[in-house]
């Protein structure tokens, strides 16, 4: 049948029926009933409408929000690096040797060990300011995968929500590729399995869906585990020849064949001195 003025379909395609009030109770027109009834929609309809409006508002002002977000991040990073009480990752953390051939990192994605102790600030930074922590991890003197902290921080801003809204998610995809590349480099630094399809898929999944956990995991690995090069240095020093022998050796001549050999004149001098000592001994014996 016909639709009354107070009956209509809303923007979501849901049929709404708001009958006018009775004449005994100050009746209103159909249009006023519709306007009044909109405030009484089901909660999930109101939530959906609010989310749609918020998304539209964010998309319209995404460029402005991205610039503000980036400026605040760089300012906070500057204050931390110049006036912060600690450096990230923790420089005084106890280190341990890497496990050769190990596929996973020394700490799990949701590993709570020491998260409320020595690693509290590190985990807090990874959760609240993951871009600053990620840049600090890759530019630290221990691994030095990126030369400049500020360049690394600029790369991390590619994954900000506002920029993703402007680029339809393309910036997020590009950043994930970069993050996975450096995560594979970290694996090489610590002797972990890398370059395989399995590890690539794991790193892609982690950086796509849990960037804060990935940041904390990488930072704790760098803070607490020695790199392969640092672990092998004691053995390299033990295997190296002493400096005195290295200086005494001549190019192309083995040490065992030349060390201790005397010139003929040196042999003659030693023989003469031995003869004098022999005469002194015989004189003393006669006394």
Automatic annotation (TrEMBL):
Listed transmembrane segments: 163-182
Pfam family, one: PLAC8
Basic and acidic residues: bias regions: 273-287
Domain of life: Eukaryota
Family annotation (InterPro entries): PLAC_motif_containing
Region (Disordered): 240-287
UniProt keyword list: Membrane, Transmembrane, Transmembrane helix
Name the UniProt record assigns to this protein: Uncharacterized protein
């Amino acid at each position: 049948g016909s639709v009354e003025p107070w009956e209509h379909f809303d923007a979501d395609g849901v049929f709404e029926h708001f009958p006018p009030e009775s004449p005994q109770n100050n009746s209103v027109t159909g249009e006023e009933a519709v306007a009044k009834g909109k405030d009484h929609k089901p909660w999930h309809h109101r939530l959906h409408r609010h989310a749609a409006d918020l998304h539209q508002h964010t998309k319209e002002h995404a460029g402005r929000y991205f610039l503000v977000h980036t400026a605040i991040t760089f300012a906070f990073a500057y204050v931390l690096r110049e006036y912060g009480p600690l450096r990230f990752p923790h420089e005084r953390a106890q280190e341990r040797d890497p496990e050769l051939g190990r596929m996973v990192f020394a700490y799990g994605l949701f590993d709570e060990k020491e998260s409320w102790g020595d690693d509290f600030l590190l985990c807090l930074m990874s959760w609240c300011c993951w871009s600053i922590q990620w840049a600090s991890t890759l530019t630290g003197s221990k691994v030095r995968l990126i030369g400049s902290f500020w360049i690394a921080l600029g790369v991390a801003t590619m994954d900000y929500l506002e920029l993703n809204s402007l680029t339809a998610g393309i910036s997020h995809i590009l950043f994930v590729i970069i993050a996975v590349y450096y995560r594979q480099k970290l694996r090489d630094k610590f002797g972990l399995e890398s370059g395989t399809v399995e590890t690539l898929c794991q790193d892609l999944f982690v950086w796509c869906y849990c960037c804060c956990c990935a940041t904390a995991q990488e930072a704790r690995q760098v803070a607490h585990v020695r790199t392969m090069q640092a672990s092998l240095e004691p053995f390299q020093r033990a295997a190296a020849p002493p400096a005195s022998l290295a200086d005494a050796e001549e190019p192309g001549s083995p040490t065992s064949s030349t060390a201790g050999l005397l010139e003929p004149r040196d042999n003659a001098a030693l023989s003469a001195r031995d003869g004098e000592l022999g005469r002194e001994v015989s004189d003393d014996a006669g006394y």
